[in-house]
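> example.struct
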């Protein structure tokens, strides 16, 4: 027995030495020659050519990789890196040797380099190993390499799929690929982790790399290794996106399979649920996949993400994503704000303030004032709100903005559009008081803080009203007034501007007739 074990270890070391000793230039073998390739019991499907072998210096066992993007110059490979011992560093960089099959059925060997992956929270697989999920890049000279496509659909319960192991065995195909079946309510958007049963296979719960459908499309990535977070220019983002915390790893002590003897089911996350992160990597993800990701995330958020609350406030939103609702526990009142329809609404809250990122804007709510105020940002801005106990902060380039719970209003030391001013507005057709009421209906409380005020009745003789507010809000009022101040609206709203009586006096001097003789003629002229 000891002698056989030594032979196995020796064989693995020979494989590592063989792959690690290839020169930097690409080297190929004839995959059709039985003398130079490993034997397989049956021909592999065409998509198996996208599977590669990745060997790290000093590693005993090679790892499986999946080519997820290939051009005439380079390829990106989804794979893993396994280190001995408990290691929180070391996954962020490194080199390897990659063996891949070209479209000409030749086996090529390339030096590879880790260019992205999850490094901050590695998955402790056992007492003596730590695993990182990484992206490896290889550069080649005008070769045609196979790559799997990213699925833009949801598998159905019971569908037949292929599971790909993280570990690449010393014999057999490029990777252990086994038939499995989907379990659970796959079509439910509330499920992030799904299961695929692998009864009777050699795969264990911690050894799943990817899931593929019958056509070879990538439909899922194993979640027993925690999902990848963006690091630098390439790498997977955590759910819901933008390099977040990622999906949690699965517990190691799961139950056995359905027959109580087979390995437990494998967990994975759908490719469509991380479609945006895959596209950030430069992978060919379809618009349909992105749309489906948004729809599923929207349903999840609406069902389990609202309301969001603290001891002082509560924030929710309408089903059509066109309204934000804020409730102040101190005032006992709700405040509603109309917004353009958003794909996904994710409020962030602190003690007395809340903030919601919108399309090119940030809405903030004050529990102390019970009002909303919207900060408009330049088109394409990536600024995000940061909340503390009573303040929301936003930095957009050189512009700095703050929203205080005490005022319920956005202010800025750098943006003059938020400077508070008092401005007089004149009407041509509408009664000024009615005009201000209409403007409040369209504009308040969306963008005007509660200390804005206007006077209408006192200004009837002048046909005007005053408003004190940030400059950008005053400009918005002027634009609305120009649209609503029409003769048609004045008549329809029963709000015709009152025209004051005007008295004009002027003295005249007469040389030949008296004023009494001239006045009858003036009266006749005025009547005519």
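> example.seq
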């Amino acid at each position: 027995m000891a002698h056989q074990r030594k032979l196995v270890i020796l064989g693995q070391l020979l494989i590592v030495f063989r792959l690690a000793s290839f020169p930097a230039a690409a080297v190929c073998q004839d995959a059709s020659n039985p003398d130079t390739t490993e034997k397989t019991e049956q021909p592999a499907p065409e998509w198996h050519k996208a599977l590669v072998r990745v060997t790290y210096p000093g590693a005993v066992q090679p790892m499986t990789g999946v080519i997820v993007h290939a051009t005439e110059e380079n390829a990106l490979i989804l794979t893993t890196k396994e280190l001995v011992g408990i290691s929180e560093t070391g996954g962020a960089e490194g080199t390897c040797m990659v063996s891949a099959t070209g479209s000409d059925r030749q086996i090529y060997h390339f030096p590879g380099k880790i260019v992205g992956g999850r490094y901050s929270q590695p998955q402790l697989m056992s007492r003596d190993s730590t695993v990182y999920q990484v992206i490896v890049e290889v550069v080649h000279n005008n070769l045609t390499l196979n790559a799997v496509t990213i699925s833009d659909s949801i598998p159905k319960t019971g569908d037949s799929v292929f599971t790909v192991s993280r570990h690449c065995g010393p014999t057999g195909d490029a990777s252990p690929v086994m038939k499995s079946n989907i379990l659970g309510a796959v079509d439910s958007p509330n499920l992030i982790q799904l299961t695929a049963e692998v009864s009777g296979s050699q795969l264990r719960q911690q050894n799943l790399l990817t899931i593929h459908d019958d056509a070879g499309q990538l439909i899922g990535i194993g979640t027993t290794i925690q999902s990848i977070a963006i690091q630098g220019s390439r790498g997977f983002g955590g759910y819901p996106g933008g390099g977040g915390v990622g999906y949690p790893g699965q517990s190691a002590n799961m139950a056995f399979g359905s027959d109580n003897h087979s390995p437990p089911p494998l967990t994975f996350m759908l490719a469509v649920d991380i479609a945006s992160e895959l596209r950030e990597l430069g992978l060919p993800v379809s618009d349909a996949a992105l749309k489906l990701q948004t729809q599923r995330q929207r349903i999840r958020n609406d069902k389990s993400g609202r309301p969001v609350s603290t001891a002082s406030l509560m924030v929710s939103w309408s089903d059509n994503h066109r309204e934000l609702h804020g409730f102040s526990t101190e005032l006992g009142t709700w405040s509603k704000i109309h917004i353009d329809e958003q794909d996904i609404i994710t409020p962030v809250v602190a003690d007395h303030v809340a903030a919601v990122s919108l399309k090119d804007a940030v809405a903030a709510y004050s529990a102390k004032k019970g009002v909303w105020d919207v900060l408009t940002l330049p088109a394409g801005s990536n600024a995000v709100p940061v909340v503390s106990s009573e303040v929301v902060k936003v930095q957009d380039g050189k512009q700095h903005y703050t929203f205080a719970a005490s005022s319920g209003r956005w202010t800025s030391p750098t943006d003059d559009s938020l400077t508070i001013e008092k401005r007089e507005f004149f009407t041509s057709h509408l009664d000024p008081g009615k005009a201000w009421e209409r403007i409040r209906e369209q504009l308040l409380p969306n963008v005007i803080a509660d200390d804005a005020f206007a006077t209408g009745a006192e200004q009837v003789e002048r046909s005007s009203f005053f408003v004190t507010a940030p400059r950008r809000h005053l400009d918005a009022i002027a634009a609305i007034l120009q649209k609503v101040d029409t003769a048609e609206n004045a008549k329809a709203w029963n709000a015709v501007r009152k025209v004051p009586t005007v008295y004009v006096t002027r003295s005249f001097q007469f040389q030949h007739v008296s004023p009494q003789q001239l006045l009858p003629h003036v009266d006749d002229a005025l009547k005519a």
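> remarks
The longest helix spans residues 2-20.
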